[in-house]
Structure formats: C-alpha cells, structure tokens
Amino acid sequence: MREALTPSVLTAHGIQLEPLALTHADGLIDASRDGALATLNFTSVPEANPADVRAYIEAALAGQHAGTMLPFAVVDAAGRVLGSTRYYEIDSSVPTLAIGYTYYRASVQRSHVNTTCKRLLLGHAFETLGMRTVYLHTSHANLRSQAAIERLGAHKDGVLRQHKRHKDGSLRDTVCYSIIDAEWPAIREKLDARLAR
What we know:
With about 200 residues, the protein is an alpha+beta fold. About 35% of the residues lie in helices and about 30% in strands.
C-alpha cells in the first residue's frame, strides 16, 4: 500500500466521512431511529440505544486497532450524523479491502449521499491507498443494496451460500461484488458525472 491505513477525513458535495468515534454515538442513535433501520433483519445497524451503539462503535474501533477495519461516521455540512460506513477485511499483502457496514438515516436514502460516500471511499482506496481490488458484500435479502452496488458498476462475482447469519439467526447467502483497479477510472468518471447532475 502506498500509505498506511490511518484515519482520514474525506469530504465532497457537502458530505464528510470522519473517523468514527464514541462522540458520534448520539448521532448514530438518531440516525438509526430515522426509518427504524435496526429492525431490518439483513442490516448491521445497531439498536437505537446507548449500549448497543457504544458496543457497535467499540467493535469497529477494535477492528481499526487490529488493522482490519477503518470506520467512518457520515456527517453532513451542518454536522448532523447521517450514518456510518467502513473499510473492512483489509489485507495489505495483496492489497485489498471491502467497503460495507453502511447505513444512512432513511430521510437521506436515495439521495446523493450514498453516491458521494462511495466516490470518496473508492477514490481513497484506489488513488491514495493503492488498493488492487475493492469488494462489496450484501445479503441475498437486501435487494436495494444489490441494486445500488450494481449501479456503481461493480462486477458480480457470485454468491456464497449459507455464508453467515442474519440478526434473527436465519442463514444468509452473501452476494459478492468487486471493482479492480483497472476498472476504477471508468467507474470514477461515471460517478463524477452522476454527482455533477
């Protein structure tokens, strides 16, 4: 990797990705209440209470300390926390990483927020960190997430059957996508054009 995976602030189009911290807990509670996101069985959204959100942040920071994750809070220009996202499964030997654990308050879904976040995260991964491949994984039940990933231009690699469990214990098939470094310039151009509109 060209640069160590250290917390960074990434900003564009009125959206800021800032290193996740316990100070974001109240904002994440509010974000998860907007649309009752934690009730969705196929998401990683914590329950909207202080204990669960604190545990969620602490687990993300433990992953950061171990060098396998780099979590962010998604914040708007007014300082309102919109949600969270992160790099995970970081493997510096290739180097590769995955983008996920992403959620946004319901009131900003289907806006420019997700496109902006993905543009920031993918750009930083390929252009600053020197990643060769970025992965995106989602539940077979999360059709909205699959559609959003496919709109990015990611390649659908396949499905890992009975790979994990949902919150309720049911088995989850994981739908796997990837973007490789050679594909990034065309995807970047498409994302920039979408954001310019």
